[in-house]
Design brief:
Number of strands: 4
Structural class: mainly alpha
Order of helices and strands: HHHEHEHEHHHHHHHHHHHHE
CATH topology of the largest domain: Calcium-transporting ATPase, transmembrane domain
CATH superfamily of the largest domain: Calcium-transporting ATPase, transmembrane domain
Distance between the termini: 47 Å
Oligomer: single chain
Shape: elongated
Length: about 425
């Protein structure tokens, strides 16, 4: 049968053509599927990076560009893999162009990423690493933003309630530059969340701080601010070594130098004593270290302290230890304690600091439980994402006239994902 008599558009008739043939030779694949590819694709299918796939054969450069344009028009983030000159237009147009290490120079120059080992598994690892980097970046920014909420709340409360200032400027500068700086740097070494690849894809225009996260910041920051002010007030009102004042005397301390009879026999210099400021500063530093272990923006966004223990990031533990060491240094070295207007605390006072500080861990764990239970919605989003990808791929089937094979590949058994590779 002559080639012009064959209906090459109908693959079901191919078996009728392959008869009475003469063996001429064998053609082998230059880059056969690797053993690790199957595991990587199964991992993608399990972890939302590969919901559905389509195999396009005899695709021309124009078709590849049209597929990328269609995906971008639907608000999707597309990635294109290729190694030849004919892949360059689509590689350049896609958000992520991935060229093979053995590909042409044109393909490499048009891509944002080059796979040196030509291995699909490297793409899977890159997706996971990219998510981890983005999460750590969010954690760093959130930490710097949210860590100041407690300070703002404490300053606002002392002014609104008329209480003596709990923290002076030099103490706030010390906390921001030293106590916060070291842990913030260590956050860059956080390992990926255990479920980082199980979360649905995020939108390109997704805000850094959602409404729920803002509520969590305010809840934790509000407690930190209130606890800081309460620690200073506790010394004035309840500490055996303090003046044992009542709330009226504390909230009207500016009247001490006047004729108010409520302050008779009271030394007004007591309101500038370093002990209450030391209590407030110690509570603030202790809560910072506590929330570093459990907070939504530190070790893990939603994973419990039990699932991701502190030692998964040894650098963060070292930074916390150094921060606490520096705090003890300014408390127990006379020259520094004079500069920062603090003083050594007794054992009873340290116990009070811990009692005031540690409930923030319970509060944060409760908020994370609510986030995992009610706000993540991973399973529901998984279904919606899957349906959305099916709609896109069905539309692509109708858009491309040169498609000969279209497989649902719900189990991602295809050894090679040509185009499009949809990143989650």
């Amino acid at each position: 049968m002559k080639p012009e008599d064959m209906d090459l558009g109908d693959s079901t008739k191919f078996y009728t053509y392959e008869v009475n043939m003469t063996f001429i030779g064998v053609v082998g694949m230059l880059d056969p599927p690797r053993k690790e590819v199957r595991d990587s694709i199964e991992k993608c299918q399990q972890r939302l990076a590969c919901i559905n796939s389509r195999l396009f054969s005899r695709v021309e450069p124009f078709h590849k560009s049209k597929i990328v344009e269609y995906l971008q028009g639907e608000g999707e983030i597309s990635a294109m893999t290729g190694d030849g000159v004919n892949d360059a237009p689509a590689l350049k147009k896609a958000e992520i162009g991935i060229a093979m290490g053995s590909g042409t120079a044109v393909a490499k120059s048009a891509s944002e990423m080059v796979l040196a080992d030509d291995n699909f598994s490297s793409i899977v690892a890159a997706v996971e690493e990219g998510r981890a980097i983005y999460n750590n970046m969010k954690q760093f920014i959130r930490y710097l933003i949210s860590s100041n909420i407690g300070e703002v709340v404490s300053i606002f409360l002392t002014a609104a309630l008329g209480l003596p200032e709990a923290l002076i400027p030099v103490q706030l500068l010390w906390v921001n530059l030293v106590t916060d700086g070291l842990p913030a740097t260590a956050l860059g070494f956080n390992p990926p969340d255990l479920d980082i690849m199980e979360k649905p894809p995020r939108k390109a225009d997704e805000s850094l701080i959602s409404g729920w996260l803002f509520f969590r910041y305010m809840a934790i920051g509000g407690y930190v601010g209130c606890a800081t002010v309460f620690a200073a007030s506790w010394w004035f009102m309840y500490d055996p070594t303090g003046p044992q004042l009542n709330y009226y005397q504390l909230s009207h301390h500016l009247s001490c130098l006047g004729d108010d009879k409520n302050f008779e026999g009271l030394d007004c210099n007591i309101f500038s004593h370093p002990a209450p400021m030391t209590m407030a500063l110690s509570v603030l530093v202790t809560m910072r270290c506590s929330t570093l272990l459990t907070g939504e923006k530190y070790l893990s966004e939603n994973q419990s302290l039990i699932v991701m223990p502190p030692w998964v990031n040894i650098w963060l533990l070292a930074a916390m230890a150094l921060s606490m060491t520096l705090h003890f240094i300014i408390l127990y070295i006379d020259i520094l304690s004079t500069v920062f207007q603090v003083m050594p605390l007794t054992t009873a006072q340290w116990m009070a600091v811990l009692k005031i500080s540690l409930p923030v861990v319970l509060l944060d764990e409760t908020l994370k439980f609510v986030a995992r239970k009610y706000t993540d919605g991973t399973s529901g989003k998984r279904l919606r994402v899957s349906d959305r990808k099916k709609e896109l791929l069905s539309a692509l089937d109708s858009q491309c006239g040169s498609v000969l094979a279209a497989t649902s590949a719900a189990n991602c058994q295809c050894p090679l994902l040509l185009l499009p590779l949809l990143f989650a």
